[in-house]
Amino acid sequence: MAQLVVYNLQEDVSERLQLRARRHRQSTEEEVREILRNAVKDESAQREPLGSRTKTLRPHPARGRAARAGQRARGAGDPSRRRVAGQEPEVSRRPRD
């Protein structure tokens, strides 16, 4: 088994490691081994590329910009604001005095 010596470790770091080891009811050495095992395990785990899950994520149907866009596409809302393809909206103008 390999040995590791850490020089110039700050006193407060050493004290916090000892406190953490006591909380977990193990020696400081075992606590440090556990921390190092977890640190290496996390890095060696294969991670999905950033953005790879965005295809599977869908917004909640009742919220957000997509929901409002869907309502507009279906023509929901105020009927006077609906546009029909090929027709210009009516514009009423009052003559100026």
Mean pLDDT across all amino acids: 76
Could you give the distance between the termini? Answer: 97 Å
Low-confidence region ranges: none
CA gyration radius, whole angstroms: 32 Å
Strand content: under 5%
The biggest beta sheet reads: none
Overall helicity = 40-55%
Overall geometry: elongated
Number of continuous helical runs: 3
Q: What are the salient characteristics of this protein?
A:
single chain, 97 residues, mainly alpha, 3 helices
Describe this structure in words.
The protein is mostly helical. It has a domain at 11-42. Helices cover 42% and strands 0% of the residues. The protein has three helices and no strands. It has helices spanning 11-23, 28-44, 64-74. It is elongated. The chain starts with 10 loop residues before the first helix and ends in a 23-residue tail after the last helix. The mean pLDDT is 76.
